[in-house]
Amino acid sequence: MKQLISLILVFALVFPAPLFASDPPPTESTTSAEPKPTIIGLRKGQPAPYSGVLLNSLAAAKLFVNKDFSKQECALRLEYAVQKEIAKANLLLESTRASMHFMEQRYVSIVSIKDKEIKRLSDIASNQNDYSVWWAAGGIVVGIGLTLAVVYGVKSM
Questions:
Q1: Beta-ladder partners of 143
Q2: SS3 call for 36
């Protein structure tokens, strides 16, 4: 049973139902009595003042309307392309401005951190207790004391 169902599903996927459908029959709207635009070729010698293409009034009107619409369509396409490029340029400009603003904030932040560190190190260097004077004085006192002790020791001997 499962094999039969899978075979039917495969067949339905390979050959879908719309594949076997025929075109719909013509309806009243497609077979109306309205005249269709026609183009008739003429040759020299036929009853026409020139050789060329003869258009009925509907075909000529459609041709002229399409000509007017093609100008408008070209203008619209041109306007669309111009606006699209303007939008791209504005997007790039705003992106660059945002990037520049971020970089300025980053620069200000880094300079502020550096200034604080320089001030902190300067305070440490200037407030450091310098005991070098005391070391020198202590060395002189110890040197004098040792000299006196050696002199006293040499005399008593």
A1: none
A2: coil
Q: Which of 75, 96, 93, 74 is nearest to 85 (CA)?
A: 93
Q: What does the alpha-carbon distance between residue 78 and residue 88 come to, in Å, rounded to a whole number?
A: 15
Q: What share of the chain is helix, strand, coil (3-state, %, to 5)?
A: 70, 5, 25
Q: What type of residue sits at position 133?
A: V
What are the CA-CA distances from residue 104 to residues 77, 97, 108, 117, 134 (Å)?
Answer: 40, 10, 6, 20, 50
Contact 60, 40 (CB under 8 A): no
- How big is the chain, counted in residues? 157
**pLDDT tier at 38, thresholds 50, 70, 90:** low
Distances from the Cα of 141 to the Cαs of 45, 133, 147, in angstroms? Answer: 142, 12, 10
Q: Which two tokens stand for residue 135?
A: 């070391």
- Could you report the per-residue pLDDT of 68-118, keeping only the tens digit for each? 788 888 889 999 999 999 999 999 999 999 999 999 999 999 999 999 999
The token duo for 63 is: 């041709």
| Bridge partners for 93 per DSSP | none
Model confidence over 117-129: pLDDT tens digits? 999 988 887 777 7
For residues 2 and 8, is the Cβ–Cβ distance under 8 A? no
In terms of Cα–Cα distance, which of 147, 127, 129 is closest to 139?
Answer: 147
